Amino acid sequence: MTVWSFLKSRMQTYGNRIAFRQGNLTYAQLISLAEGERGGGKLRVVRGRTKQETAVELLRCLACGDVAVPLDGSYGEDYVRAIRAKIENDRSRYPKLALLMFTSGTTGTPKGVMLSHKAIVHNLKGIEGYFEVATGQRILIFRSLVHISTITGELLYALYRGLEIDFYEEAFSPQRLANRMAENGTEIFCCTPTLLYHIYRYLDGAPLDSIAISGERISNELVALLKRYEHKIKFYNVYGLTENAPRVSSLNPDEFFAYAGSVGKPIRNTRIKLKNGELLVKSASMMSGYYMRKDLTAEKLKGGWLHTGDMAELKEKRLYINGRKDGMLIRGGINLFPEDIERAINAITGVDDCIVYGKDDVAYGQKIYLDYAGGISEAALRRELAKRLPPSHIPNHINKTQTIPLTASGKKKRK
What we know:
There is one protein chain. The protein contains twelve helices and 24 strands. The chain is an alpha/beta fold.
């Protein structure tokens, strides 16, 4: 079964219900827009001027049987060009794949995660097992459609369940976003803890029924702040990763405050275990592998288990994520690798050495800190960084120091 055949069987039952709020596009009209082209498993870049255009193009790609490769400029045009160059020379066909999702990165070509139709369909069924929504409810999609959490957990799931989708296309403003929810009757919203922290105080006027939180660890401070909505909004704290299409587990509303910070229990037909503190996952949603990287695939998929790279623990049969095994930082829901940022900084004249690390922060998820040694001033360094890195990767705090501390084995000592 393909993702499109799975979706269409449900979408047909919704007929003249509104699918996309912009233009009052009905489910019947959306099916007509999506179908008509002929494909055959080729890789196809999906990039619209708006989220709604991107969504339509994504559905067209799935309907014709091609493999969608979602891209936008959020990680910079160099990122887009690198990926285009990689896939446009590939004449192979991938009939079993639905999506090729590239992970974020600041240097080189990011990893491409190959997700099959089976993986996406399985994940949608798993989400249906815990995420309670009703046909006709209104969902506001804020995040970019280059993230698998937005595609599977919001767009495709919303279409499968007959929701009315409103795409937020404006620049971010907490007050404006909250006003949009109130004006358009938003009942369902999915976001990172960072985004929720910035808007939670403005939500009294919105008719929200459910909020699904994902993308980074939620702090106990934010959970405490959300208590004001305990009897009004159902909160889900969910966990996943691109390599699992993405959803792995969910802490449901009835346990959200009792087990603050937990990401709950595995979703339907998903198994987990811990090995030396690392979380391993087994399910039909696991990726087929990394695009053109058999070496990395072999490292990630061992013995039929997906090695997530997330350090975790189980307490009272609930899962808690403690951090990344590889030191990856997550700021505002965006995955950042210290080594990538360090390489860009070390290329700047006047920098002798540097180290990048993160600290948990309720407003950002994590703040990025940079310690560097060299003759360049902090102000001049910040100007150079603005030229070389996307805004999401620029450190919050820059500190000039004499030396960069090393461990006994000669590695940089991250704080």
